[in-house]
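[Meeting: bench + compute handoff]

Bench side (C.D.) handed over the final construct sequence. Compute side (W.E.) agreed to return the predicted structure before the next meeting so the bench team could plan truncations. Sequence as handed over:
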Amino acid sequence: MTIKLYCFGESGNAYKAALPLQLSGLDWAPVKVDFFNGATRTPEYRAEVNEMGEVPVLVDGDITLTQSGVIQHYITEKTGKFGGATPEEAREVLRWQFWDNHKLSSQAGMTRFLMNFLPEEKRPAEVIAFTQGRLKAAYQVLEAHLGGA
């Protein structure tokens, strides 16, 4: 049975679910959601797909999962890939997933939305500057870790 991933191309969180699906070799297909015309805000979408009104949503038979980190974890459980060979490695993967969801992707997504999807006259310069500062701090943590510092 083909796994379905409700998503849209501009969503970084949907990308975080689609990438491990693609790399895992699992049989999956995107279900494109018309986010910008309000599809996720309809009562039908919330009742039938995701009560939170968000993407991504993974449907694998009787299993429906939301939130990119949970979907990534499910793919790891299902395939044995991407999760670390030992419990310590698995916790390290989870630690960085949680950090990404809280410190990096949330700031990057908000900043990207404010800068690219709002009309220029509605872009809140002070908020953008604040989120860019938070994003810069997150990138510094990531760069230090990847550099071995």
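W.E. noted at the follow-up: The beta strands are 3-7, 28-32, 57-60, 63-66. C.D. will use this when planning the next construct.
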